[in-house]
Amino acid sequence: MNRRSAATKPAAPVSSWDGSMAMHIERTRDMGLVTAILSHPAVWPHIHEDGATEAMPHDLDGFHWLLVTDGAPAGVFLAHARGEACWEVHTCLLPRIWGAGAARAAQLLLAHLFEDIDCHKVVTNVPAYNRPALRFAKASGMQVEGNNRSSFLRNGKLEDQIMLGITRKEWTSCQQLSQ
Fold first, then answer.
1. How does DSSP assign 45-73, residue by residue?
2. Model confidence over 80-107: pLDDT tens digits?
3. pLDDT digits (tens, 9 = 90+) for 101-117
4. Contacts of 123 (CB under 8 A, 6+ apart)
5. Which of 51, 59, 81, 93 gives 75 a disulfide partner, CB atoms 3.0 to 4.6 angstroms apart?
């Protein structure tokens, strides 16, 4: 089975940031729930370009919608293969877990992609104006790899997107340092 069609297994539950509840990440095909998360008023403004009037996620075989829960839905990641070695991710987390909860979710995502899917690199693109998302990606261990100029249309203006990535080797080193 190639990595693009790999069955997504739930990552092992991890204690949440306050120790009171386990956080899980698992693949979902519930597009109603995904749409509700993407449409949240604190999420939608940051994920759509001009012209998009509503969230319309697609349930395609190559798309891995990964639901984050901690007793209730807390957000989704979209992960998809860009080839045999590299996966691209998109982050849509609800405000109630922004901060330490989001950091925990990001580590679950990376563990899932590097350990369960066996990818070698994870990349993302963040609109340059979205400073909190850039801080989040960097705090997750990603490094800036480039600038995709004038590639995101927002409020009638073309914005740059910052390209970030982390390799399995870099992620493994970060895990060893944190133990």
1. HHH--TT--S------TTEEEEEEESSSE
2. 999 999 999 999 999 999 999 999 999 9
3. 999 999 999 999 999 99
4. 82, 86, 87, 88, 89, 145, 163, 164, 165
5. 93
Report the alpha-carbon angle 16-93-146, nearest 5: 110
Q: How far apart are CA 49 and CA 158, in angstroms?
A: 10
Question: Are the CB atoms for 86 and 120 separated by under 8 Å?
Answer: yes
CATH code at 17?
Answer: 3.40.630.30
Residue 2 belongs to a domain: no
Return the SS3 of 179: coil
Separation of alpha carbons 86 and 43, rounded Å:
26
Please report whether residue 44 resides in a domain: yes
Under 8 Å between Cβ of 123 and 145:
yes
- Decide if 116 contacts 9 (C-beta within 8 A): yes
For residue 160, give its domain range.
9-177
SS3 (DSSP) at 39: coil
- For the chain, helix, strand, coil in percent to 5 are 30, 35, 35
> Is residue 37 a contact partner of residue 76, using CB atoms and an 8 Å limit?
yes
